[in-house]
Structure formats: structure tokens, C-alpha cells
Amino acid sequence: YRRGQPLGELDGIPIAVKDNFNTAGIETTCASNMLKGYISPYNATVVQKLLDGGAVLLGKTNLDEFAMGSGSTDGVFGPVRNPWSYSRQYKEKIVPRSDSEPENSNWVITGGSSGGSAAAVSAFTCFAALGSDTGGSTRNPAAHCGVVGLKPTYGLISRHGLIPLVNSMDVPGILTRCVDDAAVVLGSLAGHDPKDSTTVQDIFQPFALPSLTDVSKLSIGIPKEYHAPGLSSEILAVWSKAADLFKNAGAKVVEVSLPHTHYSIVCYHVLCTAEVASNMARFDGLEYGHRSDMNKSTESMYAATRREGFSDVVRGRILSGNYFLLKQNYEDYFVKAQKVRRLIANDFVKVFGSGVDILLTPTTLSDAVPYVEFIKEDNRTRSTQDDILTQAANMAGLPAVNVPTALSGRGLPIGLQFIGRSFQEKQLLTVAKWFEKQVQFPMIHYLSYICEAAFFHPQRACKVSGSLKN
Amino acid sequence: MAARGCGGVWCRVLQRGPGGSCSASRPRRAVACNARGGAVPLGQSGLAPWAAVVGLEIHAQITSNSKLFSGSQVQFAAPPNSLVSFFDASLPGTLPVLNRRCVEATVMTGLALNCTINKKSLFDRKHYFYADLPAGYQITQQRVPIAVNGSLSYSLCKDNKMSQMVTKTVRIKQIQLEQDSGKSLHDDARSQTLIDLNRAGVGLMEVVMEPDMCCGEEAAAAVRELQLILQTLGSSQAIMADYEIQRQIKELENGGTVLNETRAFDSKLGCTVPMRDKEGKQDYRFMPEPNLPPLILYDAKSLPANVNHQQVVNIDWIHERLPDLPSVKRAKLVELYGILPEHSFTLVNEDGLMDFFEDVVKQTQMKPKKVIGWILSDLLSHLKQHSLTAKESPISSFLLADLLNLLENGDISSSAAKQVFEELWKGEGKTPLEIVKEKQLELIQDQEELEQICQAVIDEREKEVMAIKGGNEKVINKLIGLVRKATRGRANPLLVKQILEKKLSE
């Protein structure tokens, strides 16, 4: 301000950060009793980069506890409501079931676990938000909330300061309203961090996205296994239409196979719970966080602290994970899962090696379900169902992005996912941007008194990237 | 515990019950020492040597400025919890970053122990809950450690006779890098435990020796040699008093009848106690450490062309710069100075003594073979008595050399020299010559004076003279003794003998 020069492209841009990123001097809870009141003494690298660039932190967003979940319904602060629940598009389509039904009982979930971040962006409270993505936790809520959700390549963005769920799969995720913005945020976050030994050493060059006009040189792969059981006919139709869109524009669209896709759920379950059991071992109430009043012995204090601090979801995963890591089980579960993971990753290598540039898949099995429906099944079941289309990218460490595509019959967002080659975010986002322009996803319309304030056209909302259009 | 100072070494000697292999269950860190091996107690408790073999696991703190995976300082005796980074305290979201110096120190040690250095090694998490392990797991190397298949040669005296030294070899199974834990201070009075995390995360080298040793003596000698090697390399200060090693091993020997279980030595109770954790029931749930990529080391051949040298560790480069190991030093001493092998052991064993010896040799005309006697008996015994190292000696090498020169030149007798030595030890700043003059210890050079004294003694001691003349030649020593007494040690005994003999034969 004093020098009259912006700190960077994000100078002055309001952002929100998922509450599993450490923010210095600001409570960081992971939506868990274990860390309620925990004031972190340091900034996560990505947070620091945003702040150094002049971004304005508006707040920490809600999530599933410790990022475990696909609905953002299982955190101690309660569930996150999808802003589209209050949109005119959704409300118009609701068939009232009975007069006795309370007004707001049909609000829908955001998806998860970065639901708070997705909602924040979707509701115009900020221009960009940080999420995390371990099995789809950024892309899933992005799809349900009608925003762009980018999962970068593993190793591109530092995880230092991101409280881990699965160290070998976690990445910081970026949620924005348009693809150009995602590229801008990526530009300020990506790059080697000495504090994170899993980030690659290569120098990262931020890029601006070209406006693609000719897609004839592009080869789009449609993995047949992503026509998963439970995929709604609506989404299937949107997906087909998208494939046709590319075909009609001259791109080569081919069906491909990722044969090990259906193993990814169990594989993910084993590896995820094993890492969770390990990562949660530090929460013992001694150094920080919740500590139980039970003090008969150290062991009893640990047990009580962890019982009080962790939800059933977390504890369930810890128990499973410890089981898989027992000496007698290790080979059969953990090592086996690692081998299957390698097979899953190889599926992608083969497909990308055969000339396919980008894969096009649905992001979710359906549009957002009402909260009252969602909670009928437990967290584990839901995660198993909902992660199926997004998990494999985490297994393989590949970049993937959700692009809001169309509205469902219920007036709720449907998104499609693009998966790219390792470290080829530029290509991935270039294609995503082209697609975004083609589909012209509608802006969320609130009831009239809000709408007047919302004079932003979706593309004009992308002031950050300077692409002012009418 | 005395053994755990900065750069401390502590041993865990694991005992193996028949059929079971002893994995490292949680020891009482400050005091644990267990013996590993398939021991068969021979009847009497503790008195017979173990029939079978002993293996050792030795943990040596790496000498480095910062910890193994974080930037906090490594320092001895700092205020509690003053050297703890966010990572050491296991704050959520922190990640390990490998310390290059720790890797180099371990590679050096591996090379010195003739190990194969694994060009690719891996890190793992070993899980257990304990108050001084903040993360609930220790980062170690369980699957593929940094160095394997080495050997350590050591010598020990047979039957405690220095002149009968045997050389033995113990195989080194592996050396692995791992984190140290913090320290627990149990305050039983207030039913609480205080935790100091200064040590949490300090780098350790764990040296695992195969069960090739037959008894406590061998184990102690092997550990001592390893200590010397580590100190020579500078990779660890390896501070552990000799007596501490002996004591721990002896304690195990005294617990002879219970060799079939693992016991820990509890220094407070002063005896062995069964291990707190049920041996064999502790499952550490090992898992690869996902935040650390495999550790890749290079040699001259495999080093990639355009790589930042700050980022890589070159095994060959380290190999070229290894200092002389103790065994080499000893051999050189024997060759250069013609001293006995057992002398070289003592010289190298005792901190600073070798340098002291060499300094003295440089500054004196006396032959090294004679100098060594002064160093090993006079100087060393005094040092030991006062618990000093050679560097702390009140008699500098210069002064000792000076003294030895006087002796060598025949200016004083050896008994006089010993007196001067005692005076010098007081450290009052006087030179040997000054002391000699002050106490009038110069050898009487005047032949006539000597003859007079000898004559006086002969005149006094008729009985003895008669005895000598009668054939009992040994009695002359008594006369010599008397002359020496009369001259207060200022007579050259050989000369005196000559004179007496001459006079007596007249």
C-alpha cells in the first residue's frame, strides 16, 4: 500500500482456509474436540505464502473431523450447509412433501471433507479457499457447491502445516469460482519447500492459462470403469454430453480402461486407516490439545483423553489402522494394499502413455443429497460410496480438477472431473478452462434481496485473473 | 545415569530366551542393559561364564549441531525443554527434514566398521506410547538400514595379563539411524513424571553386533574399542565410563540364573528387574515413514553430473577423509617408537595420552622405549589417582621432557628423578632444574667425594664387609643402599657399586 505496488496477484484478495491448516495465533481445530482451543504457533507454508502475497484471511472453515468424511457433517461444530440449499434454483424445484415439514429441513450437504471452504467460495464470502484432498475432499464438495476444485499433483505444493490425514496422499486443495483463479492461486503456492521433504526440487514456473480455441490435437480419455454402480442417470447424461462436446469440437475422444479401479476402495481403506492410526498417535494430551482430567496413571490419561477428544469416526479408523499394522497382518493388508496402489497408479501411466492427454470423468455419483438423507448411513459407508470416483487420483498422485458443468433436475450443481498427467497442471487447467467456457455454468441465484447485491457475472467475478468479460 | 551425558553411549545387550528373538521392548532408557544371546546357565548362579553368546545393541548419540530431523540445537545440560522445536514437540502438521551431518557421521562410522553402505536406505515409524515420545512413534530404520555387514576387531588381555593380548572380531549386523527420545524424570513423591524433551529427536546411531562374544569381558572390550573409534571419527563423543560398561555387564552376569528372560537393570533398586513391557507381546506396528523419501547416497561412480553438492552425500568422499582408526594408530606407535603392543593400547585408550607421549619424545633425547615407562607408570598412575586426563596434567610434556633430559644426561639418578616428579606434580611452577638445585638432588660428580663416602660406609660396616669378602656378594647391595642414603640419593648406584667393589677387593 505504502509503496503503491501490490504484493502480488493475491494482494487484498479475501480467502478462507480449511481448519486443518495451521494458522499462527489463530485457533486450529480440525473440527475436533482434541484441538478445540488449540492456538497454533506457526503458519502452514501455504498459508504463509498466501499472506505474504497480501491475501486477506477471512476465517477458518468447517470440515469433517480431521478431514475424515465425505459430507462435512461429522465435525464438532456441526454440519456445513450447502449455499445452493438457499438458491432460487433449488428452492423452485423442491416438491414440498408435507405442510408439517419444517422450513429448512431439506437443505443439502456440501460434500466433504472441505465443505466449509467450498461453501465459503460458493456463497461469495471469499474469492478463493484452501481445502485439502486425500480421497476427493476438495473435488467432491467443489462439485456439490458448484465451484472449481483443484487437486494438484502430490509433491507440488507443500504440506508443511497441513495436519495430516494420510501423508502419502494428502495435498492442499484450491477452491475458486473459475479456473483462471485456480491457476493464479496455484502459482503462488506451488514450489519446493525445504520443510516438506516430499515436495519436488524442480523450480515451478507460475503460468497464465492460454485461451484454447483449437482442441483438435487433444485426446480425451473416458475411463469405462468410472461408469460406477450408483452413478445417477443425470450425471451419466451430463458426462456423455461433455464427451460429445469435445468430440464435436474436433478432439479425439476415446474410451479407455483403468482395470484396477474397483480395488481402490479397499486399498484406500487399508492405507488410509493405517496412516491415520499412526498420525493420531501424537494426540495424547501431554504436549497440546485436550487433556482429560483422569490422572490415575499415564495410560489411563491417554485413554480418557483420546476417548474424549476423538469422535467415533476417528476412533474407528484408528482401530482399523492399528489392526492392519499388526505384525501378523502387515503383509496381508498393508503391503498388499501398497502393491494394489502401484497397480492403480500403473493403470494411469499406461493410459497416459498411450496418447491420452486428459481423462474426463464424473466427480460424484449424484448431486448433493439432503442432510437428513445423508446421515441415514454412517461415515464409513458414505465415504466408501462417495470417494470412488476421486480416490484413484490420490492413489496415483495425479492432478485433478472439478469443473462445475450443469444443474441437476433438482437445481443443484453437477461437476465433472478432469485428471491430468503428473505436474502437467498447465495442460489440465487449460483444458478445464476451455470446457468451463463452453458450458457456461449458471451463477447461483439467491432470493431477490441477495441477488441485487450479487451483480457479479461468473466470469466478471474472476477479477483476479484480469479476464474481464461481458 | 552417568553414561548418558552429551554424546552418550548406552548399551542394550539383549538376552534371548530359547526360540524367541528379542525385539527392543521399551527399556527404562536411563538404565537399561540387557544381554542377548542363547544363554545356558551353568549350574551355579552367576559364577560360571556364559556358555553361549552375547549380542549387543549400542546407541551412540551423534555429534551434530542440530537434531536428526529438526533444526533445534543439540546441547548438553541445557535448561529443560529449551531445545525443542515444533517438530520435536510433535505439533500437528510438522514434518521431518533429514540432517545431512547425521547421515555423514553414520556413513563414516559404517566405513570405519567395514560395513557395506546401503546406497538406498529407508525410514520407518516404530509405534509405542510413552510420555517422552511425543509423536507416539520413533522414526528409525527397520527395513533397510544405512549400513550392514561390518566387523569390529578388538583386543583383550588373557587372564588379565597385559602381555597376553588376543585379538577378536565381532560381526556388525547393521547400523541404523534413529531418533532419541526425551527424558522422563519420575517424581514418586508427588506421583508425577516430568518430561524434558531436549533430547527428543537427537540423532542416534544404533550399532547392532552379532552374538559373537562369549562373555562380559569380551563385550566390554568390544564396546571400549567402538567407543575409541567413534571418538576418533568424531561421529559421537561416546562418553561412557569404563566402569559403567563393566558394571552393567557384571550385573547381568550376577543375574546368571535368569538369563532366559530379559531383565533390565534398575539403578535405583540396584538389581535386575523383569522388563516392564511384556517381552515379545509388544507389537510396534512398523510402517514406512511417508514423509521421508528413501535416503540415496552416492559414490564417485554413481554421482550424477550436475547436482548440487550440498544436497548429496558422497560415500567415497567421506572414505577418503577418514582419520586413522585406533588400530592403525596403535600399529604406527609400535612401529615408530618400538614400544610394545600393550603399551600402544594404553596410549590410545587414555584420552590425550598418546599426544602427550609423542610430545615428550619430541622434546627429549631419551629413547621412546624408556619414555614410555615414565608415561605409563609415573604419569598415568598420578593422573588416575587424581582423576585427570593427560591434557589436565599439572606436569606439561615440556617439563617432563626437561626432567627426562636431566636423567638421560646423568645429572640425576632415577630415584632423584622420581622425587623431582613428585615436586613437579605440585604444579608450583618450578622447573626440574630449579627443583634439583633446591633439594640438592644432583648426582655427585666428584669421584673423590664419592670415594670418601664409600670408604666411610665400609669403615662403619665391618660385619657386612666381612660377609662380602667371605663370598656373599649380594650384601654389597646393602652397602650401596647405605651410600645412597648417606648421599640422599645423589650417588649414581652403578658408580657406587664400582667404587665399593674396587675398595673391597683391595
Protein model, in words:
- The complex is a heterodimer of chains A (470) and B (506).
- Chain A is an alpha/beta fold and 470 residues long.
- Chain A has a single domain, classed as Amidase signature (AS) domain (Amidase signature (AS) enzymes, Alpha-Beta Complex).
- Chain A is built from 15 helices and ten strands.
- Chain A has a ten-stranded mixed sheet, with helices on both faces.
- In chain A, strand 6, helix 6 and strand 7 form a beta-alpha-beta unit.
- The radius of gyration of chain A is 21 Å and the shape is globular.
- The two termini of chain A are 30 Å apart.
- The C terminus of chain A is likely disordered.
- With 506 residues, chain B is of the alpha+beta class.
- Chain B has three domains: 246 residues, no CATH class; 114 residues, no CATH class; 59 residues, Arc Repressor Mutant, subunit A.
- In chain B, 35% of the residues lie in helices and 16% in strands.
- Chain B has a six-stranded antiparallel sheet with strand order 1-2-11-8-7-3.
- In chain B, strand 9 and strand 10 form a beta hairpin.
- In chain B, helix 5 packs across helix 6, helix 9 packs antiparallel against helix 10 and helix 14 crosses helix 15.
- The chains are: A alpha/beta (470), B alpha+beta (506).
- At the A-B interface, helix 7, helix 8 and helix 10 of A face loops of B.
In short:
The complex is a heterodimer of chains A (470) and B (506). By secondary structure, chain A is α/β, with parallel strands linked by helices. Helix content of chain A is 34%, strand content 12%.
Ordered list of secondary-structure elements with their pairings:
The complex is a heterodimer of chains A (470) and B (506).
Chain A: E1 14-18, H1 45-52, E2 56-61, H2 88-93, H3 115-122, E3 128-133, H4 139-145, E4 148-151, E5 171-176, H5 179-189, E6 219-223, H6 233-248, E7 252-256, H7 264-279, H8 298-309, H9 312-325, H10 327-353, E8 358-362, H11 371-374, H12 379-386, H13 391-396, E9 400-407, E10 413-419, H14 425-439, H15 448-451
Parallel strand pairs in A: 1-2, 1-3, 6-7, 6-8
Antiparallel strand pairs in A: 3-5, 4-5, 4-9, 8-10, 9-10
Helix pairs in contact in A: 5-14, 7-9, 7-10
Chain B: E1 9-12, E2 54-61, H1 100-112, E3 116-117, E4 120-121, E5 124-127, E6 137-140, E7 147-157, E8 165-179, E9 183-187, E10 192-196, E11 203-213, H2 216-233, H3 242-254, E12 263-266, E13 271-274, E14 287-288, E15 295-296, H4 315-320, H5 326-337, H6 341-349, H7 353-363, H8 368-385, H9 397-408, H10 414-425, H11 432-438, H12 447-460, H13 462-469, H14 476-486, H15 493-504
Antiparallel strand pairs in B: 1-2, 2-11, 3-7, 4-15, 5-6, 5-14, 7-8, 8-11, 9-10, 12-13
